[in-house]
Amino acid sequence: MDASSTPCEREDEEEYVLLDLDGIAGELDIPPNAPYVLSGLDTLNPVLIIDDKFKLIGEYEETIGTCIVFTEQDAAPIVHEVTGPSETNLFSGKCIIDSNQPPTKQVKPVCQLQKVLKFRICSDSEVQDLTAEQSR
Fold first, then answer.
1. What are phi and psi of 134, to 5 degrees?
2. Residue pLDDT, tens place only, 28-55
3. Residue limits of the Transcription factor TFIIIC triple barrel domain (predicted)?
4. Each residue of 54-87: b (16+ CB within 10 Å) or e?
Protein backbone atom coordinates (compact mmCIF):
# COMPACT_ATOMS: atom_id res chain seq x y z
CA MET A 1 0.00 0.00 0.00
CA ASP A 2 1.19 3.48 -0.84
CA ALA A 3 2.23 5.55 2.19
CA SER A 4 0.20 8.54 0.97
CA SER A 5 -3.16 6.73 1.16
CA THR A 6 -4.82 5.13 4.15
CA PRO A 7 -7.77 2.73 4.24
CA CYS A 8 -9.86 5.18 6.32
CA GLU A 9 -9.28 8.09 3.95
CA ARG A 10 -12.33 9.21 2.01
CA GLU A 11 -13.15 12.07 -0.29
CA ASP A 12 -15.45 14.87 0.83
CA GLU A 13 -19.02 13.84 0.21
CA GLU A 14 -21.84 16.25 -0.52
CA GLU A 15 -24.50 16.36 2.15
CA TYR A 16 -27.89 17.91 1.53
CA VAL A 17 -29.97 19.49 4.29
CA LEU A 18 -33.61 20.54 4.06
CA LEU A 19 -34.36 23.92 5.67
CA ASP A 20 -37.74 23.42 7.36
CA LEU A 21 -39.59 26.69 8.05
CA ASP A 22 -43.01 25.09 8.69
CA GLY A 23 -42.75 25.77 12.44
CA ILE A 24 -42.65 29.53 11.90
CA ALA A 25 -44.78 29.82 8.75
CA GLY A 26 -47.85 31.21 10.51
CA GLU A 27 -45.85 33.58 12.72
CA LEU A 28 -43.83 35.48 10.11
CA ASP A 29 -44.65 37.10 6.80
CA ILE A 30 -41.50 36.42 4.78
CA PRO A 31 -41.50 38.26 1.44
CA PRO A 32 -40.68 36.23 -1.68
CA ASN A 33 -37.02 36.44 -2.76
CA ALA A 34 -36.02 38.04 0.56
CA PRO A 35 -32.25 38.09 1.08
CA TYR A 36 -30.97 35.81 3.82
CA VAL A 37 -27.78 34.85 5.64
CA LEU A 38 -27.32 31.29 6.88
CA SER A 39 -24.38 30.81 9.21
CA GLY A 40 -23.04 28.07 11.42
CA LEU A 41 -24.06 25.08 9.32
CA ASP A 42 -21.26 23.10 10.97
CA THR A 43 -22.60 23.87 14.48
CA LEU A 44 -25.46 22.28 16.42
CA ASN A 45 -27.63 25.40 16.05
CA PRO A 46 -27.23 27.27 12.75
CA VAL A 47 -28.60 30.81 12.54
CA LEU A 48 -30.79 32.07 9.69
CA ILE A 49 -31.35 35.82 9.29
CA ILE A 50 -33.98 36.75 6.70
CA ASP A 51 -34.21 40.24 5.24
CA ASP A 52 -32.20 41.66 8.20
CA LYS A 53 -35.44 41.43 10.23
CA PHE A 54 -36.17 37.84 11.19
CA LYS A 55 -33.64 35.90 13.26
CA LEU A 56 -34.17 32.15 13.46
CA ILE A 57 -32.28 29.39 15.22
CA GLY A 58 -32.10 25.90 13.78
CA GLU A 59 -31.78 22.41 15.15
CA TYR A 60 -30.84 19.33 13.14
CA GLU A 61 -33.06 16.27 13.04
CA GLU A 62 -31.98 13.01 11.42
CA THR A 63 -34.35 11.70 8.78
CA ILE A 64 -36.02 8.35 9.33
CA GLY A 65 -35.85 6.01 6.37
CA THR A 66 -35.14 7.36 2.91
CA CYS A 67 -35.92 11.02 2.27
CA ILE A 68 -35.64 12.05 -1.38
CA VAL A 69 -36.06 15.58 -2.80
CA PHE A 70 -37.73 15.93 -6.20
CA THR A 71 -37.98 18.72 -8.74
CA GLU A 72 -41.06 19.34 -10.85
CA GLN A 73 -40.97 20.62 -14.44
CA ASP A 74 -43.56 21.10 -17.14
CA ALA A 75 -43.60 18.05 -19.37
CA ALA A 76 -43.83 18.18 -23.14
CA PRO A 77 -47.39 17.86 -24.46
CA ILE A 78 -48.57 14.42 -25.51
CA VAL A 79 -48.31 14.07 -29.28
CA HIS A 80 -50.45 11.59 -31.16
CA GLU A 81 -49.28 10.34 -34.54
CA VAL A 82 -52.11 9.68 -36.94
CA THR A 83 -51.85 6.41 -38.85
CA GLY A 84 -54.05 4.65 -41.35
CA PRO A 85 -54.60 4.40 -45.09
CA SER A 86 -53.71 7.66 -46.84
CA GLU A 87 -56.88 7.62 -49.00
CA THR A 88 -59.16 7.89 -45.94
CA ASN A 89 -56.95 9.89 -43.65
CA LEU A 90 -55.97 13.40 -44.71
CA PHE A 91 -53.62 13.70 -41.72
CA SER A 92 -51.56 10.57 -42.41
CA GLY A 93 -48.00 10.98 -41.20
CA LYS A 94 -48.88 14.12 -39.20
CA CYS A 95 -48.65 14.63 -35.45
CA ILE A 96 -51.59 16.06 -33.54
CA ILE A 97 -51.45 17.64 -30.08
CA ASP A 98 -54.60 17.23 -28.01
CA SER A 99 -55.49 20.73 -26.78
CA ASN A 100 -58.03 19.27 -24.31
CA GLN A 101 -55.28 17.41 -22.46
CA PRO A 102 -54.45 19.11 -19.12
CA PRO A 103 -50.83 20.23 -18.66
CA THR A 104 -48.61 17.53 -17.20
CA LYS A 105 -45.61 17.68 -14.90
CA GLN A 106 -42.42 15.66 -14.98
CA VAL A 107 -40.90 14.77 -11.61
CA LYS A 108 -37.18 13.97 -11.25
CA PRO A 109 -35.19 13.07 -8.12
CA VAL A 110 -32.62 15.69 -7.10
CA CYS A 111 -30.90 14.25 -4.02
CA GLN A 112 -31.25 12.15 -0.89
CA LEU A 113 -31.36 13.84 2.53
CA GLN A 114 -29.89 12.67 5.81
CA LYS A 115 -30.86 15.70 7.90
CA VAL A 116 -33.63 18.25 8.27
CA LEU A 117 -32.84 21.65 9.79
CA LYS A 118 -35.94 22.91 11.67
CA PHE A 119 -36.07 26.59 12.58
CA ARG A 120 -37.77 28.58 15.33
CA ILE A 121 -37.85 32.29 16.14
CA CYS A 122 -35.19 33.28 18.62
CA SER A 123 -34.49 36.31 20.75
CA ASP A 124 -31.62 38.74 20.07
CA SER A 125 -29.75 37.45 23.12
CA GLU A 126 -29.81 33.88 21.73
CA VAL A 127 -28.38 35.08 18.41
CA GLN A 128 -25.60 36.99 20.19
CA ASP A 129 -24.73 33.92 22.30
CA LEU A 130 -24.66 31.67 19.24
CA THR A 131 -22.60 34.16 17.24
CA ALA A 132 -20.05 34.31 20.07
CA GLU A 133 -19.87 30.50 20.19
CA GLN A 134 -19.38 30.22 16.42
CA SER A 135 -16.53 32.75 16.40
CA ARG A 136 -14.52 30.78 19.01
1. -70, -30
2. 888 889 999 999 989 999 999 998 888 9
3. 11-120
4. bbbbbeeeeeeeeeeeeeeeeeeeeeeeeeeeee
